[in-house]
Amino acid sequence: MTSASSPTPSVVDISGVTKTFDVPGHGTMTALEGINLTIGRGEFVSLIGPSGCGKSTLLRLIGDLTDPTAGTVAVNGKPAPQARVDRDYGIVFQAPVLFDWRNVEENVRLPLELARIDKAAREARVTEMLELVELTDFRRHHPYQLSGGMQQRVSIARALSFEPALLLMDEPFGALDEMTRERMNSEVLGIWAQTGITVVFVTHSIPEAVFLSSRVAVMSPRPGRISRLVNIDLPRPRTVETRESRRYFELVTEVREALRGHEGGGEGITGGEAGLDDAALERMAAEGGIG
Amino acid sequence: MLGFIGLIFLLWEGVKVIGGDPWRIGDTVIWMPPFDFPMASDINLPHVWSIAFALAEPWRRSADTSLFLFLVGKALYTWREASIGFGLGAFIGIALAAAFVHSQLLERAFVPYVVASQTIPIVALAPIIIFFVGNDILAVVVVATYLTFFPVTIAMLRGLRSPDPRAMELMRSYAADKRTIFWKLRMPASVPYLFTALKIAATASIVGAIVGEGPGGIQEGLGRAILDFNQTYITGPEKLWAAILVTALLGILFYLLVRMAELWWLRDRAPDVLT
Fold it and tell me: Looking at the complex, does the CB of residue A115 fall below 8 Å from at least one CB of chain B?
């Protein structure tokens, strides 16, 4: 599922993208405006911003789960719809979205079944993925028997099972407690290092974005824009010590100030939340995007 | 369950203690109720044990099968009609829901008629169905089907729509087509809804079969037995009560059968799905 066929300088190429929604009672709402972003192979890019800044919408545009109003989105050098049909990306949502009639290994196997991978290769991949997320002992468990963190690991294994070039993660650890979240962060970094996959990661959490990313795209609301790209030059591998290093704190502060920058402009973080939040925008996007 | 049966028994015989006919053993009166309620007389409300004894005795003079076995035979016949109707109705219901979930046009055009079909009382519709289909077991099956397909259609429509929008997006991200989404996501997600409807349909299909047997002229089922014992009520009230008892048992057993299938089918799902 790699794109060696075409000479692609980047995995994600977003150029001049604008997204507007028609909201009953609100008129036309601009969720994203003038977005340009290029993500190279093997990068880990976080999208961070207040509610309503359109970061989830941007992720969904990359995954062709919604259409841009203007501009182009390319994945692996192809238009986003073609990349989706070619199964060039895996996606992880905030909720694990596991099928409760399938056990752990059957859930991980689902995309392989849909891609008509033959059975032997399928089973090998499932075993490999379960080892990667350390759930081998739970392969016959059903989703309701697992903790939230374990469920999310199944969801990650499922997204990676067909070896996509790109992993899209939409606040994947937003529902987990702080301890679990930090452990999951380290696990994701391990997987990222092991597989060399490109990751686009949406989050609310500044420490999470800084700890994980090679670059952080700071977004501002109404209309959603990328206001700043912060290069995260922390050494790898990143460990518990990374979270305690001086450079880490400097970068967290830098991102925080970049986020706070919008407050002075009158349309602050809280101002952005006064209207519609991301979830509402996503729902509208879902209605507009599918069907 | 046992407590409930005990309660019915106490209420039943309690009414007879207060206002029934004199209680006798042989010719001796052992209890004279203080009041006289017409509805609690031995004709209108036989003693529970009279019904039990009647079940053990031949179903009519000179017959060599007991009333119980006679009624069980009838019940099996009725159950066969009902279960064919139940199966057909379930199939039609699932097929209609599958069509509606994929076509707004079909849904808008036909769901009102599906709902309207159920506003016609089955006792009024049964003779017309028999008029069209003929005096045949098929007519009874059609009536049972008619009562089954409706709850299944409505519940399946909800069940097929029940997947989380995120799950639909996940399937979209895998470039799954409508057929794949139907079989891998919509259908499995709708199974709990289906069983809820099938439990209702199980008892409804038996009602349909019994109601259809009367005008359908079917001799072998419980419906005929109920009509016959109703006509001879004065000479043997226990027999009609016994027939009603067996009918109720048939409905409960069919329900339990579906419930067991549900427990087995959904054995791996979260326990709260099964309540």
Answer: yes
* B138 CA: distance to closest CA in chain A (Å): 37
Picking from A84, A92, A99, A103 by the largest number of B CB atoms within 10 A of its own CB, the best residue to mutate is A99
A65 in contact with B, Cβ within 8 Å: yes
CB pairs under 8 A between A and B: 64
Instruction: Give me the half-sphere count of Cα atoms (radius 13 Å) on the Cβ side of residue B185.
Output: 24
Round the CA-based radius of gyration of chain B to a whole number and report it.
24
3-state secondary structure of B45: coil
Contact B184 A113 (CB under 8 A): yes
pLDDT at B62: 82
Integer Cα distance of A237 and A193 in angstroms? 9
- List the beta bridge partners of residue A218: A48, A228
Task: Share the mean pLDDT of chain B.
Answer: 91
CA-CA-CA-CA torsion sign (B26, B32, B36, B37): negative
Cis-peptide, bond into residue B151, ω within 30° of zero: no
Backbone angles phi, psi at A39, to 5 degrees: -120, 120
pTM score of the predicted model:
0.84
Q: Write out pLDDT tens, residues B218-241.
A: 888 999 999 999 998 888 888 999
CA-to-CA distance for A216 and B89, rounded, in angstroms? 57
Q: Are A237 and A208 in contact (CB under 8 A)?
A: no
Extract the tokens encoding A196: 């060399």
Query: How many Cα atoms occupy the beta-carbon half-sphere of B1 within 13 Å?
Result: 1
- Inform me whether the C-beta atom of residue A138 falls under 8 Å from chain B C-beta atoms: no
Residue numbers in B near A100 (CB within 8 A) = 269-270, 273
CA–CA distance, B67 with B64 (Å, rounded to integer): 9
Dist. CA A11–CA A284, nearest whole Å: 27
DSSP assigned state of B66: B
Average pLDDT over residues A234-260: 92
Please check whether residue B229 is in contact with residue B222, taking contact to mean a CB–CB distance below 8 angstroms: no
Q: Which two tokens stand for residue B165?
A: 């929008």
User: pLDDT tens across B112-152, in order?
Assistant: 998 888 888 888 888 888 888 887 888 899 999 999 999 99
Q: With H, G, I as helix, E, B as strand and everything else as coil, classify residue A72.
A: strand
Write down the ipTM of this complex: 0.84
Contact B153, B97 (CB under 8 A): yes
Amino acid at A7: P
